[in-house]
Sequence to fold (94 residues):
Amino acid sequence: MSNTTYPTSNSLAWKQADADVHVATRDGEFAGFVEFDGVAHRVRDNHGADLGAFVALDAAFLALEGVYTPTRQGGNLPRFLPRAWRRRSRRARA
Fold:
């Protein structure tokens, strides 16, 4: 088992988790993995979606780097909540 990291320009960090499995992280978050099934290198993204099979390991690495799409953090909520949505302070009852 090797802990070798392969730095890339797209900020993916690769680590070899087993003899036939390479795991990718981006900014500390799981980005996907490549596994060798005996015939080809299968690529899966961070949601487990199959991205294809590749003969060369480098081609599999590049396939995962190409699927990155930044997501907006925080959903659809506005930055400041309207007054009606804010929690009101309540007085203690005796």
Remarks:
- The two ends are 64 Å apart (CA to CA).
- The first strand starts at residue 12 and ends at 18.
- The chain has a mean pLDDT of 79.
- The beta strands are 12-18, 21-26, 29-36, 41-45, 50-54.
